[in-house]
Amino acid sequence: MDEAILLNSVTIKGKRVGIKIRGDTTEYDPAAYNLRPNATVEDLLKQVQGMQVDRNGNITAQGKQVRRVLVDGEEFFGNDPTLVTKSLRADMVEKVQVFDKKSDQSAFTGINDGRDAKTVNVKLKRENKSGNFGRVELAVGNLGFYQGQGFYNRFHNDNKIAAYVFSNNTGNVGLSKRDRQQYSDGGVEATYNALDVDIWNGSYGGRGIPKSTGLGGQFSNKFNEGKVVMNMNYSYNNLNVLGSDFVERQENLPSAYLLSNSVRKFDNNDQKHNFNGDLKILLDTSSTLVVKINAGQIRRNTFNNFRAEIKDSIGNIINSNSRLFETFANKYAGTADLLYLKKLNKERRTISIGLNLFHTTSASSGTLISNTNTGVTSELNQLKYNDDHSSIINLKSTYTEPLTKSSTLSANLIWIFNSSRLNRETFDQARNSQISVLNEALSNDYRLEQVFQRGGLNYYFSTKKVRFQAGSDFAYVNFDQNDRSKNSFLRKEFYNLYPSAEFAYNFSAMETFSMKYNGYPTLPSIEQLQPVINNTDPLNLILGSIDLRQSFSNSISLNYIAFKTAKDIFMSGNFSFSQIKNPISVIVNTDSEGLSIYKYANLNNVSNLRYSGSFSYAAPLKLSNISFTIDGSMDGNRLNNIVNSKLSNNLLNMYKLTFGLGKAKKGLYNCGVSFGVIYNTNKNSLQPLLQNESWGYQTRPNLDFYLPFKMTIHTEVDYLFQGKTTSFTNDFSRVLWNSYIQKDFFKNSDLSIKLTLNDALNQNRGFERYITQNLVIQNTYDTIKRYFMFSCVWNFKKFNSVK
């Protein structure tokens, strides 16, 4: 007779799988990662495979910058990534999803329109969808440093109310990275502030010492049993940046090169108001109406004091310049989107109609006082006024028809009207006089109108394993240029193709490959066309050209992602390549006195190239559960322009390889270290002997050590070395060492006090080196250095019980 043994219980232990791949969506499980109490979503993203978060909170996923962070699939604070990741707690999250979010029209029809954006969706746990939670931090340091911020969130299932306020001078300057693309119709991007007298975009990238204050509120809810979805938010941000920088520049010419340096002191202020509102209405079981509004105002003051000189290749000074440039700008912008979606009487037979309205208007003024010495002294005392506006009407309709169970054909018609005006006026002022006279050579009133008539067909095929799409649009464009100052009119006509293709193959549920191709033209902007000199830098004059034509880009991208569950191995890779034919570039003419004139022009029979790639590999080592990662990336450009009647070809490449090790023991420590190698190359056809190759190294060890009595010690080091080049013969190195000790109180560690030491060795120095066309530039600047700070943080939460 068989014997039976009755067991009271059986416990099976195993490691929780942290990653799942579902088609084009990658999911991460927060419970699989070792996180400290009250860790934020940002802390979680720093640990997950295939994602990186930089010091400013910018997120990169699978080689692409994350543009949106959603909460339960809905917008939260108007697509503001850093606000979501810094304010939401990781222990509230059920899973984090990463995918390419398509436009509303594309998601409805299933046809890719090329307007996708890398997106993170934070899906909350069921028990954390109803209640109140938030965070309050007050901090004070030596040398006048301070930081205060508060977040409050009230969630009741679909009803979400949130608010925040912050003020600091520690570099947490704002909650949005949209900058120049603050407003966009989604199809025709509109630059935000490119036409003002001073084109500073109101952002802070580490240059200078900032002071920032902001507040905002968000409301979203679903009504009428989910048939009406509303999402609204408002934000205010005031940023002031004070500091100085030192710019060294090498300008490559056919027969020689010039060396210049300039010292600048600046005091800039930017004040923004912004409102976003989304409304989705399910009219019936087959039709939906979507309304989106985005409106805002910017007021901006800039003050810049320059001193510069230019030397020839043997060190002789050939000119010097000092100038004072002070500006003010006031800008309003708004966009409205209406989208009607209708499912017809057959599955996948749909019609959608979208209308986008965009308008922006700006008035900016400035004072330029300049003194230039080229052996002969010339002075400028000028008042400058820019008045610009832009309006866009975009109407698009799409019809989809199922051909078979797996294939669909779509047809679309698009009509776009784009009108812009740029009126520039410069007045000369005599010394010690209030009389000003219009300088006609530096003044111009220009209008540009474009009418697009576009249509096309697209074929789509999809099965469980394979997804394929191919098609093209054809467009006819009327391009009218009106120089009101000279009473001249010029009409151009363009015929354009917009080919596109996409292929994706799922090897398995955890392994997928995709490829995309897009071809598209780029039309010249009004600033590039307007035939007037911009002399805000008297030694580098910029001139538009009415004869510009469009360029055309062919872009292809490859993506691969896989997770081997049995071995806990994550792999991803991507590559992108773009060819820009007949690119809009510049013709540069530099005379013997160092004066350069830059004129926009199409370069015939040459192409600019852009290419980039990255890969990521993460796996556990067999020894002691140590995690191992290796990340690599490369970025390259081939840029062309004309310098003193000779073609200048610039080949720029950057390669980076980073190795990382990490080990964690719950309740005891979490540590890691990374080491990266960077190699830069630059080859310029005008000066082939100045190759400007350089090596760089970066290492980042970090440690969280959990002590008894709810105490934590955190320390991290960021060492950067960048080697000398032919143009810049000094190495650059710095060690940033940041640490804090923290004590938590109460059962759930809701209250914490923390002592922070920023830049312990006082070595933080602003540094940037880059190359563009025939210029090699190095910039060193003021930035935030060593300080101590004492802070108190209160994390609060109260969730309702879930039945």
From TrEMBL:
Domain Outer membrane protein beta-barrel: 342-654, 655-792
Pfam family, any one: OMP_b-brl_3
Superkingdom in the source lineage: Bacteria
InterPro entries (UniProt xref): OMP_b-brl_3
Protein name: Outer membrane protein beta-barrel domain-containing protein
Protein species of origin: Pedobacter mendelii
